């Protein structure tokens, strides 16, 4: 079976992309909006701010200081912000919780924004980039009432293009790593044929968790088939 462009690739630490700590300082500096509540991540009752999406300051610091970002080897524009472990596992759970839509903009701002800026720099533009969310599974979308990748993408850019669609398939989480690789690309396809002149020249794929890179590779291939010249991808976390 032919291998996709990213299959079998590994992510490695990208020392040139350091965590954007000033964002945290800015958020923590907005003391006027403090209230006490229990943190969505650690459960401790503490001072929370709406700007932190229901997470307490120490948990946000844990997320920011977790290992990352990671760059997909031999693919210069595919980044995962953090390793999928520790606080990040819980943060992704909160992100997908139907009651917590406010987590997406916070996680996008804290973790994806610095990488989004690097993409803008590498493409030498300050314009909003066209975001293509990697569609969540139909079952997941139905159960939580939203698609977390779309929420993340909207927090980054006002320009969205739904160029990739996803049909029903076996849920990735019940499969082994090998099965995921086989399964990952099979149910993604171009969402619609659009006239060549309407295809964005550059796009950025956005998703929450990456495991093998096969899904991202398949989506990138679809974008190229549609006529996209350059694409990048921003993921919140990578399972290493
Ligand atoms: Zn906490």
TrEMBL record:
Q: Which domain of life is it from?
A: Bacteria
What is this protein identified as?
Phosphoribosyltransferase domain-containing protein
Q: Which InterPro entries match?
A: ComF/GntX_DNA_util-trans, PRTase-like
* Renumbered residue ranges of the record's region Disordered: 174-194
SUPFAM superfamilies, A to Z: PRTase-like (SSF53271)
Q: Matching PANTHER family, A to Z?
A: DNA UTILIZATION PROTEIN YHGH
Instruction: Give me the stretches of Basic and acidic residues compositional bias.
Output: 175-184
The record lists the organism as: Alkalispirochaeta sphaeroplastigenens
């Amino acid at each position: 079976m032919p291998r996709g462009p990213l299959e079998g690739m590994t992510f490695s630490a990208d020392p040139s992309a350091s965590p954007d700590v000033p964002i945290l300082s800015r958020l923590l500096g907005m003391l006027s909006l403090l209230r006490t509540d229990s943190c969505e991540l650690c459960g401790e009752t503490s001072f929370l701010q709406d700007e932190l999406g229901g997470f307490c300051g120490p948990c946000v610091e844990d997320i920011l200081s977790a290992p990352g970002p990671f760059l997909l080897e031999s693919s210069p524009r595919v980044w995962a912000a953090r390793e999928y472990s520790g606080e990040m596992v819980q943060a992704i759970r909160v992100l997908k919780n139907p009651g917590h839509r406010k987590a997406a903009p916070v996680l996008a701002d804290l973790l994806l924004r610095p990488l989004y800026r690097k993409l803008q720099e590498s493409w030498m533009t300050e314009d909003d980039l066209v975001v293509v969310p990697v569609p969540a599974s139909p079952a997941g979308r139905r159960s939580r009432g939203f698609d977390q990748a779309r929420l993340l993408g909207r927090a980054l850019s006002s320009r969205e293009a739904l160029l990739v669609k996803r049909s029903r398939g076996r849920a990735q989480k019940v499969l082994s790593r090998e099965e995921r690789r086989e399964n990952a690309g099979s149910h993604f396809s171009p969402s619609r044929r659009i006239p060549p002149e309407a295809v964005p020249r550059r796009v950025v794929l956005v998703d929450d968790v990456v495991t093998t890179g096969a899904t991202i590779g398949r989506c990138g291939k679809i974008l190229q088939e549609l006529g996209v010249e350059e694409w990048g991808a921003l993921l919140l976390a990578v399972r290493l």
